[in-house]
């Protein structure tokens, strides 16, 4: 809604980074840019949707057929790309959480042992 509008530069910057890093365009597909305030006057998509980093490469994309557009921009939506990246990382994050929980448990056991030995030390005196 606020892409490329004054006062909403953070929206534009966020979309540019997401589309560039994930090699995607729009949420579901590049057609998401149809009828937006950004695309209406020029039938364009943001340049960060483009396969090659060329200024103005997104101009007029929405007026091309799908085959022509596919040679110039990333066709996939960012939601699918982001979902795939999250699914790829779930096992790593889950494994890391288990390791951290185990380390915390070992620390807890050692703290009980230390508290118990300190208590026995005071009873002997």
Q: Counting H and I runs of at least 4 residues, what is the number of helices?
A: 3
Provide the residue-averaged pLDDT: 86
Q: What's the N-to-C terminus distance?
A: 74 Å
| Helical residue percent band | 40-55%
The general outline is elongated
Strand-pairing-aware structural class: mainly alpha
Low-confidence stretches: none
Q: How do the helices and strands follow one another from N- to C-terminus?
A: HHH
Residue fraction in strands: under 5%
Task: Give me the count of strands.
Answer: 0
- Calculate Rg over CA atoms: 26 Å
Q: What profile does the largest beta sheet have?
A: none
Architecture overview:
The chain starts with 8 loop residues before the first helix and ends with a helix. The longest helix is centred in the C-terminal third of the chain and has 47 residues, at 78-124. The chain has three helices and no strands. It has helices spanning 9-21, 66-70, 78-124. The mean pLDDT is 86.
Compact summary:
The protein has three helices and no strands. The chain is an all-alpha fold and 125 residues long.
Describe the secondary structure blueprint for this structure.
Layout (H helix, E strand, L loop, with lengths): L8 H13 L44 H5 L7 H47 L1
Write a concise keyword list for the protein shown above.
125 residues; 3 helices; mainly alpha
């Amino acid at each position: 809604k606020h892409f490329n509008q004054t006062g909403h530069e953070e929206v534009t910057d966020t979309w540019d980074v997401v589309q560039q890093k994930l090699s995607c365009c729009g949420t579901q597909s590049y057609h998401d840019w149809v009828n937006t305030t950004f695309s209406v006057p020029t039938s364009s998509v943001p340049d960060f949707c483009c396969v090659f980093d060329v200024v103005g490469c997104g101009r007029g994309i929405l007026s091309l057929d799908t085959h022509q557009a596919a040679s110039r921009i990333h066709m996939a939506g960012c939601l699918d790309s982001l979902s795939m990246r999250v699914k790829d990382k779930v096992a790593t994050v889950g494994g890391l959480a288990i390791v951290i929980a185990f380390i915390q448990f070992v620390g807890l056991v050692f703290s009980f042992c230390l508290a118990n030995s300190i208590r026995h030390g005071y009873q002997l005196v």
